Hints:
single chain, alpha+beta, 22 strands, 50% helix
Amino acid sequence: MASPVGEDNWVDFVDHQLRGATDLESRVKVIETFRRAVQAEPGSLKVWMAYCEYFWSLYSDCQPGSDAGWPIEEQHVGRETFTLDHALNLWQEGYEAVQYRLSDSHQLWNRWVSLEMELLARTATEAGVRRITHLYKNRLAVPHATWDNTSQMYSSFLSEYNRSNYESEMLHVTANARDAKRLYELRDPWEMKLTHAQKAGDIQGMKAIMAEYIDWEIRQAKSKKDHHTLTNIRICLGLFSRALTGIMSADESTWLNFLVFVSTWHSDIKLGRVKIPSVILPNMLDVLQRAVHHVPWSGTVWARYILAAEEAGLGFTDIERIKHAATSCAQLDRDGMGGVLEMYSAWCGYLKRTAMNPNATEEAVDLAEVGLPSALEDVRHWGKRRYGDAYEGDPNFRLEKILIQFLTEKKDDIDEARTVWEQLSVIPLHANSYDFWLAWFLWEMLVFASTKSKNRSPTPATVSQGLRVPSFATRVFIKALKVRTLDWPERIMDVYLQHCNDYELAETLREAQDTIYKTRKGVARRREREAAQAQAAAQAQAQAAYAAQAQNQAQVQPQHQPQQHQQQQQQSQDHPVTDAPQAGTSPGSKRKREDGSADEADDGAKRAKSETAMGAAELKRDRENTSVFIRNLPGDITQTKLRQFFREYGHINNIDLQKSEGAPPVALIEFRSPEDARTALLRDGKYLGESVIQVSPATDCTLFVTNYPPEADEQYIRDLFKHCGGIHSIRFPSLKYNTKRRFCYVSFRDRSFAAAATQLDGKPLEGGKYKLQAKFSDPGHRQVRQGAQAEDRELHVMNLPRAASEDDVEGLFEKAGKVVSVRLTRNMGGVSTGTAFVVMETKEQAAKAIEILDKVIFGNHPLKVEVSKPPTRKTTATSRADGEAEGSPESSASGSGSSHVSGPEIAARTIAILGIPDTMNDARVRSIVAPIGSINKLVLHPQHGGAVVEFADAATAGKASLVINSTVIEGGKKLRVGSVGQLFKEKAEKRIDRIDLPHQQPQKKQDDSKASKKGKTAAELMPPPPPIRRPPVLGKAGAKRGLGFVVPVSKAQKEQNAAAAAAKEGSEPVNGTVPSGPAAPAPAPAPPVAQKSNADFKKMFLEGKK
C-alpha cells in the first residue's frame, strides 16, 4: 500500500488505524505508523500533536487505577513500554521539531508545559522546578507569536515556586529575550498579512503572501548585516515547514526553493564559507524523498534526487530504484514531456559520469553502454504513447548528446557517434534548426582536432604537402543546405564559407562558393514564384467571391427595401441594453456611411477629409485618409529603414509592418496629414534596396464592423471575411475604460476587397440572433443615437414590491399613457429585485408618468420613478452562471443567489486568470473557461489584464488552474493563473499604438509671472555664474595679465581719471574739483541707470562673438 502524502492524509490514515487498535500489539503498530508519519512530515505540527497526545494517552491508560479497561498483563507490559520518560522525551522531540514555527508552535508547547506543571503539582521537587525553569528560559529565547503569554506563564510559575528569586529571574529572562522579540517584530507584518488573508478565506492571497514571506526570509538568512545567522536559518526552516505542510505542500516552486536553500547552505558549510553546525540542516536525501512524494510530476525534483544520491555515494541499485520510482509515477508527464526528459537526462548523466570515471569498472562501462540507448528508447516510447506520431523528440537532444559524448570519449567509437548525428538529421525538428547543424559541425571539428597527424596545418596547403582537411565537417554544411525549410540558412552559409576559407582546399572552397550562390538564387526564385502564385490565387478567389456576393445581394436587396422602414422602427423600440449597439448604432461615437455610400465604394470614390474641418491645431487620427500601403518590400526590411526612406515626404505617425513566409513584406504607414500621404505616393515604383516597391493609398480599405457574436475573436472575423480578399490587420478597441465596446476595424490590402466585404453588411449571424454591420470607417462624423432611452421615453422604476409582476406594473403606468414594454430585473433565483424599466410611447407620456407616479405608495412601497439614464462606462464586466452579462438593466441587480455561501468556500473555488489582453471581452474569456466546468461568476478586469472566475466547486477550480495555466491565446500570448490579490497588483499590457509627435522648439518666455506658475526649466534652476571682471587691454608691458585679472589703481590715478571725466563734460577742474556758481551751473541730473542682469550680460557676450 502506498504511503499517504501530506499531514492531513497521515492524520486520517493513523486515525483510521487506531480505531481498530484494541490490544497492545495493534497499539504498538499505531506508534510505528506515527513514527513513519513524523519522518515523512517532520515539520508538521498536526502530526506531532496527534503523536504526542496518543502516546501520552497510552501512558495514562496503562497506569494502575486507570479506567481504560486494559488486561492486567497488558498493563504490566505497557508500563514498561510506554514510560513517563519516553512520553516526556517525545513531547520534547516534537517541540524541537516545530519550535521555530513562529505562529503556531505555542500549541504544542503550551500542552507540553501544562503536563509538566501537573506532574510538578503532584510531586513538587527542586529538580522538577529547575527542569521547568530551564524549559521556560529556552522557550522565551525563541521568537514566537505568543511571547507575552509565555512570559506571563513564567511569571506565575516563579511566583508560586521561586518567589525569592522572582525579580532577578525575570530581569535575566527579559534581557536574554531582547533578540528574540526583535526578530519577531521584524516578521510581525508578514504574520499579520497571513492572518488577515486566512480570516478572509483568501487561499490564493495566502499563497502569494507566503511566497513573498519566504523570499524575504531567505534574504534575511543570507544578510551579512544581521549577526543572528543561525537563528535566521532556523526561522527560515520553520517557515518552510509551515508552507510545505500546509497550503504550499503541492507547490513545485516552493519545494525547489526549499531544495536550493538547503543545498546552498550545505555547500557553504562544507566549503567553510560559514561557521555553523551542519546538524541544523535537514538531510538532503530526506528532503528530496519528501519532495518527490508531494510533487511527483516535477522532473526537476526527480533529477535533483538522482544527482544528490550520486553525490552522497549511493550505489547503482539505490539510484536505479529512484529512477524506477520516477518512471512508475503516473504523473511524471502531467505537464508534457519536459519532466520526463529532465529525469532521464539526470539518469543518463549519472551513467555517463560513472562510466567515464578513470577508476570505473568494466561493469559500469557496460551499464552505460546498455543503459544510454535503452533510456533513449524509453523516452521515444513515452513520447509516442502521449503524442503519437506528432512527437519528434527533445528539441535540445540532451540524451543524444550524452550518448555521443560517451561513444566519442569513452568508447572511441566515432562512427557509431556519427550514426547518432545522422539519425537526428532526418527528423524535421532537428533538421530545420541551424543550432543542430552547428552543434554537429563543432563536434566534427573536435574529432578532427583530436586526431593525431604528423603534418597538420591550420591553413590550406598543397596536396603534395599531405594536408589534412575536415571533410566530415564540410559534409555537415552540404547536408544542411539541402534542407529547404532551414530556419536560418544565412547563418549556415556564412559559417560554411568561413570554414572552407580556413581549412579546405581551393577546389572545395570554389565549390562551396558555387553552392552558396546557387542556393541563394534558387531560394529567391522559388519564393518569388510562390508569392506570385499565392497572389494570383487570392485575387481569383476574391473576384469570384465578390461576383457571387454581388449577385446574391442584387437578388436580396429588392426584398429588403420595403421592410427597411419597419426594421428601423423595431430597432428604435425597447431592447435590452447589450455591450454593443444594435443595428444602425455606432460604437465609440463614430458615424458610418449611409447605405447609399456603398455604391460609391464600388467606384472607390470616398472623399478625403476636409482640411478646414480638421483644424490646424487639433491632433486627431484619421487612419483611413492618412495611410498608404507599401508592397513588394525587401525581405530584410525594418521599420527604421522605412522611416528613413519616407522621412522627407512627411511626418510618420505609425508603421504596421507584416512579414509572412513565402511572400514579400507589406507595410501600412500612417502619416500625420492627408497631404503627407499623397506626397508619399511619389515613391511608387522606386527602388528600396534591390526591390521596386509599390505605394498605394489605403483609402476605402478599412471597415467598421460590429454586431457580431460577443465570443468572436480575430480568427472569427478573418473567417467571416476570408472570401473577400487579403486582410492586413484587425484592430479591437481597448476595454480598459468601457467593457461594453464590441466592434473592430478590419483593414484590407485593397479597396476592392473592402468593397466586397461591405456586401456582408446586414448578414444574419447565428440563426438571425445578430445582424452584422460592415461599413466603411468614417471617423469624421457622429451618429445621432436613437431608441427609447435616447428619446427620454424609458423610465427607471425603483422600490417595487418583490411580488409585483410585469402586468401589475403595466396596469399602474397605463394611467399616464400607452405602455410599450415593461422589464423587471430578477436575480439568479428568478426573484424580482424591485426594479423595472418601463417604456412609454411618447416623451410626454413618460414625463406625465413621473409627475403622477413618483413617490406614490404601491403595495406599501413608495415608488421612485425617473428617466432612465444611459449606463455609465464600466471598467469591469460580470457574467454569471446563466451567461447573462451584468451591467445591463435586467441583470445589474442580480447576484444574490450565493448569499448563504461562506467566504472561505467562495475563495476555495475562485481563481484569477492573468495575462488577458485588454481587447478581450468577458464572453471570449468565458468561452475558454466554460468547457472546464460550471461557472458561478466571471468578472473581467481589463485595467489589470485579467479576470476573476468563481466556479461551482473547488475541484473544478483546481482543474481549471491546471488547464488554463500556459494556455496560448491569439498573438501567441500565454494565460497564467494566480491569486486575486496578485491580479489587482498587475497592470494591463501597454499597447504600442502611438502618434510620434514632431519635435517642437520651446516657446520664449513672455511673462515672468506666468513662467513662474508653469515652473522653471533646468537651465533657469541653475545658479548664476560669478561675475568676471576683464581688463580693458591685454598684452602690455609689466606683469603678466589675463582674463579676470584686476589691475590695482593708485589714489593719484583715481584723481586723474576723475579730472579727465569732468573735462569731457565741459568743466575745468579746480584743485581737482569742479567749480560751482553762475559760471558753472550744476549739470542736469543724469537719468538712473538700470542694473544689468546675468541674461543681459550673456546677450552682450553672444553679440560680441558675432
